[in-house]
UniProtKB/TrEMBL annotation:
GO terms for cellular component: cytoplasm; nucleus. The lineage of its organism: Eukaryota, Metazoa, Ecdysozoa, Arthropoda, Chelicerata. Keywords: Hydrolase. This is Serine/threonine-protein phosphatase. It comes from Galendromus occidentalis (western predatory mite). Residues 360-388 are annotated as: Disordered. The gene is LOC100907204.
Amino acid sequence: MTYYQRSGQNSPYHYSYASAQAYDYSQSHDLDNILERLLNIRHTGSRYCRLTLNECIYVANQAMRVFYREPFVNESFSMPCKIVGDLHGQFVDFLRLLSVCGYPPDTSYVFLGDYVDRGPNAIEVLMTLYIYKIKYPERVLLLRGNHECPRINAMYGFMSECTMRFGFSVYTAFNDSFAYMPCAAIIARRIFCCHGGIIKDLETLEQITTFNPRPIHDPEIKSTVTELLWSDPNRSFDGWAENYRGAGYLFGETALTEFLDKFNLDLLARAHEVMQDGYELFYDRKAVTIFSAPNYCNQFDNAAAVMSVSADYTCGFVIIRPISYEFPLTRVDEVGGPGLHQSPPYVAMASENSTYALRGATEANKSSGPETQGKKNEKTSVAAYHAD
Ligand SMILES: [Mn+2]
């Protein structure tokens, strides 16, 4: 039985604070310095960033204030942008993703949630995302996933990670920030973004906001926010069905088409399911699943994908192939530099145009190296964009 269940309460405020170190509310921190240390992991080969309890709680609190000011359904995010699926604490892979797709604010991002649990470095992932969010709130959109809830992340790794590294107060501070996270976005009035899926029996988009006053620490099982965070496409038959996950629904193609038509939308972009190639277009290209944690849990050999939406309403996919962390890789221009024999692989897996080479790699490795040629160029036009 988890700590959360034992507490018998429905809010993380009822947790007891087990941390030995107290948070100093008077202290503020240099976000650029923290970000530099986080990104520096690219060069050190370390798996963890040296952070303090005070820094974590400060960043979580600052991010919560930004979420608080944002609408629950963000309709003002514009193109071009990149849409990212589940990250699940795989910080090394997240750094690879940033090095391939670009860093905020030069690249705008919509993240579809599930930042924590399963993987080892959810704190680093959250700290990086939150600092970008605080610095560039218009360029980075963080949507909530079903793991950004204490009922779930008490069981799947995030609580252990926080309590073992810092103490319970860090866990509580992050969950307090999740309670204010927006849950959906509409990009360019065409693409509906959320973690899981669409809502059954929704009459107006405003209802998503009015039905769900924030803060929402643990969404009710039967609620529109749970449907956004938990639902999946229905692959067995067309129509609505109970979700085997126990929350949300399964929705078929007709259900999706009705939803999109009703609100004059073209595409549903969602995450929530591991995909072998990192993404899947389905329902006649009216929906896409994006999953951005390669080698998920070290149990899959899946690739990660990021969907890029360009200013001319064209969508493409960047595929990031899974790699073994132990594979010896290094940068051409830094061979022989200090500590570079430990250079982690994401450094060498940059974009097509990079001058990186794999030390000791075979020709086969080199040719299939940088984030796949074939899939990268695949483009899909989202229907009828130029109609108006
Ligand atoms: Mn999920």
